[in-house]
Amino acid sequence: MARVALVTGGSRGIGAAISLALKNAGCAVAATYAGNDEAAAAFTKETGIKTYKWNVANYDDSKAGLAQVEADLGPIDIVVANAGITRDAPFHKMTPGQWQEVIDTNLTGVFNTVHPVWTGMRERKFGRIVVISSINGQKGQFGQVNYAATKAGDLGIVKSLAQEGARFGITANAICPGYIATDMVMAVPEKVRESIIAQIPAGRLGEPEEIARCVAFLASDDAGFINGSTISANGAQFFV
Ligand code: CAA
After folding, report:
1. 62: helix, coil or strand?
2. Closest CA to ligand 1's atom 25
3. Which listed residue, 19, 45, 99, 218, has the most CB atoms within 10 A of its CB?
4. Contact 8, 28 (CB under 8 A)
5. What is the atom index within ligand 1 of the atom nearest the CA of 188?
């Protein structure tokens, strides 16, 4: 039986590459998205991967959406918590709204996505949780107090889930991508982006597929003893 995989924010950017990599690895994949109907429809048309619309920041919506995916595809074996947003601003200009929106989506969104499927994974004695964190959760980033807090929080989540899930065959790991060529990075002002690329020893942005291949490995049956880990994929920009 094919493993069933759920990828939040799975129709665009890094998430789209992850959805596709898991499909190519033989999984039945469901990809969620929050708002961009057009991109989701195009993604489904191109890949055959079904998309589901809900807001990961809302627990009840997430629970209902996950139940629908399980009704359509079967019990979820693999969760890739990838959905994330930025609301960058220097701290003195950051509003409580910018703080809360990022916390709700990037951090509470991980809880909302994993919690409803956790009991089923424990019962079935198998699960793979992969959380997409960030280099900026490891090193911090000027203008990203909110985002860096959530991405550092992801590392605490997987290290704790790993300890709770290990004896039930569940692994939880994080990937910290560096700067990847996606809309999110392209939204950074060009001058700032150029200065960031200058700090990457690889001399280039990463490709979404370079993150997706890490996810496919961590989600595979072969990766059962890798648990609570953080994999950095950042072109040598930062070492922990
Ligand atoms: N370090 C030190 N000082 C900095 C700085 C930095 N990295 N960036 C800006 N500054 C300084 C500016 O030079 C300026 O100084 P002066 O007032 O003396 O001229 C001061 O900070 C204020 O800068 P701005 O007026 O430009 O502030 P702003 O309100 O326009 O906002 C910003 C700036 C939104 C933070 C902008 O610099 C920015 O977008 N930075 C990029 C943040 C970033 O890396 N985001 C990552 C997005 S991609 C992502 O998140 C994916 C992932 O996981 C990697």
Report:
1. helix
2. 90
3. 19
4. no
5. 39
CATH of the domain at 168: 3.40.50.720
| Sequence-ordered strand ranges (E) for 24-117 | 28-33, 50-53, 78-81
CB atoms within 10 A of CB 27: 23
Whole-model pTM: value is 0.96
Per-residue pLDDT, 1: 80
CB 62 within 8 A of CB 54: yes
pLDDT score of 190: 93
| Overall number of domains in the chain | 1
Domain presence at residue 240: no
Probe target for ligand 1 pocket from 133, 188, 191, 194, with the most ligand atoms within 8 Å of CB:
188
Query: Which residue range(s) make up the domain with 202?
Result: 4-232
Does residue 238 belong to any structural domain of this protein? no
User: How many C-alpha atoms does 20 have within 13 Å on its Cβ side?
Assistant: 17
Instruction: List pocket residues of ligand 1, CB cut-off 6 Å.
Output: 86, 88-90, 93, 134-136, 141-144, 147, 179, 184-185, 188-189, 192
Residue with tokens 């700067």: 179
Mapped onto helix, strand or coil, the DSSP state of residue 85 is coil
pLDDT in tens, 67-108: 999 999 999 999 999 999 999 999 999 999 999 999 999 999
Above 90 in pLDDT, residue 58? yes
User: What residue has token string 């089923």?
Assistant: 120
Q: Which amino acid is at 194?
A: E
Mean pLDDT along residues 207-231: 98
- Residue with the nearest Cα to atom 48 of ligand 1? 185
Provide the residue count of the chain.
240
